[in-house]
Amino acid sequence: MLAVSLLLLASCRNGAGVDAALSESEVLMTDHPDSSLVLLQTVDISQIKTRAAKARYALLYTQAQHMTDSIRNASRKDNALLIEKQYDTQYLLIKNQILRNKANLRISLLSLSVAVLLIIVLILLVSLYRRKYDIEKKVTFVQDLKIKHEDDMAIIDKYEQISDSHLQVRQLLVNTFQRINKVLESYYQYGNTKSFIQEFELQMSHNLTDGADFSELVEMANICNNGVISRISSAYPMLNQEDLAFISLLILKFSVPTICSFYGYKDPNSVYVRKSRLCKKMGREDTLDRILSDFMDHDEVSAM
Asked: Using CA atoms, how far apart are residues 5 and 10, in angstroms rounded to an integer?
């Protein structure tokens, strides 16, 4: 087909084969109107002599141009439809992605909200548990202090009989007993409430040793235990009178709750912390109970 068109093109330029070119253009018109149009455009119009040939040329040229424009318009329309289809597809993909992102965001926010809610609930549960534990611990402490009160009063009675004198520490014990009764009354009245905690803090936070003279207590512990306080003071001169008073309470075997009430400690662990600090002050790695036991054992050996 291409070779024939080239031959016809050559013949059209030299004035020969115009009719053949028109015939070939007519043949190409149905299936290849664009090729027919190209062929007609190569025809030298000056070589067309007859009116019939000119009319035929004009008709074929118009028909070829019309059909070529129709094909081009259809192609453009197809391209436009394809572009529109691609745009719609891309739009749907983007829209679906946005919807997925929104769904993922909602899920993330929901998960975060649930996590925050669980954390808040956990914090509330821990807070309630700690509050309950703290109250039970305080109640146990006060009840234990009340139970130990009679034993500690017996200690005072014993040493007062030995010394035939009235010890100031007895009044401290009496004051302590009055305080714990107030705390227990608050517990029985209010139960596990804020009022009980406030009463506990009020009654148990005072240091009864402020302004108290423990010299007689230290002297009593020293006399009744073969001068143990004097030997401790000589062995550890860095200990002051307050330290010796604390040690005297331990040697006289006052209960830990009672010692706590004297110094305004709200937790028995505070007594053990003070023991540990005294050991560090004395430059010893042993426990204070072990150190005092060694001094007391020495007293018993000396007495024998």
From this structure: 9
Q: Who has greater pLDDT, 233 or 42?
A: 233
Decide if 258 contacts 173 (C-beta within 8 A): yes
Q: What is the pTM of this model?
A: 0.55
Cβ-in-10-Å burial (0-12, 13-18, 19+) of 229 comes to: buried
pLDDT of residue 271: 92
Token representation of residue 84:
């529109």
Whether residue 10 is predicted with pLDDT greater than 50 in this model: the reply is: no
Q: How far apart are CA 108 and CA 205, in angstroms?
A: 49
Q: How confident is the model at residue 166 (pLDDT cuts 50, 70, 90)?
A: low
Residues 61 and 37: their CA atoms lie apart, in Å, by 6
- Contact criterion met (CB below 8 Å) for 251 and 225: yes
Query: Are the C-beta atoms of residues 260 and 270 closer than 8 Å to each other?
Result: yes
Write down the domain spans for the chain.
2-84, 148-303
Mean pLDDT of 178-207: 74
Q: Which tokens in the block code for residue 188?
A: 């029985």
Q: Write out the two tokens for 270.
A: 């505070």
What's the pLDDT at 194?
72
